[in-house]
Design a protein that fits this description.
Two copies of one chain form a homodimer. Chain A is an all-alpha fold. In chain A, about 75% of the residues lie in helices and about 0% in strands. Chain A has a single domain, classed as Tetracycline Repressor, domain 2. The termini of chain A are far apart. The first copy, chain A, binds a DNA duplex through helix 3.
DNA sequence: GTCTATAATTTGATAGAC
DNA sequence: GTCTATCAAATTATAGAC
């Protein structure tokens, strides 16, 4: 199965970026983890930039897909903002490192522009999802601000949790987000 | 003046880390920027870990010193939380990249442990400062949670601003922080 | 698609002269 | 304290055989 190797490359690349950023992975590291040689990795992704762009795209699509549709969550009696916070909480609980686009965003000044462009796609799609989520729960005041605040609070909570590495600090950081979903403040 | 070179090394190292993280600087890069050779940088800081530790310590001390004392700010009619938000806003306005300890925290899993230890010092000192600040303005409910939330929100606001790079998004991200300093919610 | 082999560059680090 | 010279290792990337 030819495309399995390509998927394996993408998966391990994502994991490595989430722990060490753009310089946290190398063609040889990835090759060793997948069980092939570095030249074979280059066959699938000619340059490091290509590989990072593909990893960011794949991460973004998986992340958004995994969230589901805000309207569906509400229809099933759930709170989409709670779902969103849980998605980030699971990053800490599963010890998956950082949000791939969060860690790359921190290094953006030293990254190829095509990679930075993908980061913007991630952030735009997340703001869009959150705006739909706040709309879906009838929280319609200052939607844009609420969406950006929730996104940045969670990115920051991951940063803080990743330094000290405990879930309690993460939970403290995000407690205020859900307070906002019961009223319309 | 011998110690001037050492200070110059520390300064340029901080700048480079803030733009590219731990792998955003090299002994040769720094040497070139300071106007000496890489072996001279090694004389002042034997290993890369040593240099990163010194840069983190220096950054933390300068950052906290620059904030001043919360009680003094209140005594002069100011709002220390506003001062704190401004300190982060200036990072974006001055295009200084990221918070040095924020970008390193994102890469923590791939960093020498002595560097990670310094990150924890930064975060602890900041939480302490914020607790004093909330106390100084008479906002005494859930001080620990408020401090951690403000810190992580600002770290996240820098991450988001650093990807897209505009001050409007930063301002949107942090708007809610000051809303909290007028009441006691 | 994967391999061997290798090129070209960069990196952290050290020895020893001045 | 700074220099020249150098080392060993790692990195991105390519050529060509199978």
């Amino acid at each position: 199965m030819p495309q399995d190797k390509e998927k394996a490359i993408l998966k391990i690349t994502q994991e490595m970026i989430r722990r060490g950023g753009y310089n946290g992975f190398s063609f040889r590291n990835i090759a060793a983890a997948v069980g092939i040689k570095s030249s074979s990795v280059h066959y699938h992704y000619p340059t490091k930039e290509d590989l990072a762009v593909a990893a960011a795209q794949n991460y973004t699509n998986e992340f958004i897909d995994n969230l589901g549709e805000p309207a569906d969550i509400v229809a099933q009696g759930g709170n989409p903002i709670e779902s969103y916070v849980d998605a980030f909480r699971n990053v800490v609980l599963n010890k998956s490192g950082m949000c791939l686009c969060g860690v790359l965003a921190a290094e953006a000044d030293n990254l190829p522009e095509r990679v930075v462009a993908e980061l913007n796609v991630f952030f735009e799609k997340n703001v869009e999802w959150l705006k739909n989520a706040y709309t879906a729960i009838g929280n319609t005041n200052n939607i844009e601000a609420k969406a950006v605040q929730t996104l940045s609070s969670l990115q920051g909570a991951l940063v803080v949790a990743n330094a000290g590495g405990n879930i309690e600090k993460f939970n403290l950081s995000v407690a205020h987000i859900l307070d906002d979903t019961t009223g319309n403040s």
